[in-house]
Amino acid sequence: MTGSLFVAGASTFSHNGGNNPTPTVAALAYRAAEGILDYVDDPRLLVEDDN
Fold first, then answer.
1. How far is 2 from 16, CA to CA, in rounded Å?
2. Residue 39 in contact with residue 4, Cβ under 8 Å?
3. What is the rounded distance in angstroms from the CA atom of residue 33 to the CA atom of residue 28?
4. CA–CA distance from 44 to each of 9, 24, 50 (Å)?
5. DSSP secondary structure code for residue 12 in this structure
6. DSSP assignment letter at 32
7. pLDDT band at residue 15 using 50, 70 and 90 as cut-offs
8. Nearest-CA neighbor of 5 among 36, 34, 29?
9. Residue 26: how many CB atoms within 10 A of its CB?
10. Alpha-carbon distance 23 to 12, whole Å?
């Protein structure tokens, strides 16, 4: 198995006083963690290269 990199963050969300992205970022991080655990149990190709 080759190394894998998983990245989750809030850099794509707007940060202002009227829009708090914290709940959305927390939900995405939780979903990413679930996906990583599934991947660890069953390593497979996650994205296919069309080239």
1. 39
2. yes
3. 9
4. 23, 27, 17
5. T
6. H
7. low
8. 36
9. 11
10. 14
In one letter, which amino acid is 31? R
Q: What 8-state DSSP symbol labels residue 46?
A: -
Is a pLDDT exceeding 60 seen at residue 27? yes
Q: What is the pLDDT of residues 28-44, one digit of tens each?
A: 889 888 888 888 888 87
Backbone angles phi, psi at 16, to 5 degrees: -145, 170
- Evaluate whether 6 touches 34 at the Cβ level (below 8 Å): no
Angle at 20 between CA 19 and CA 24, to 5 degrees: 115
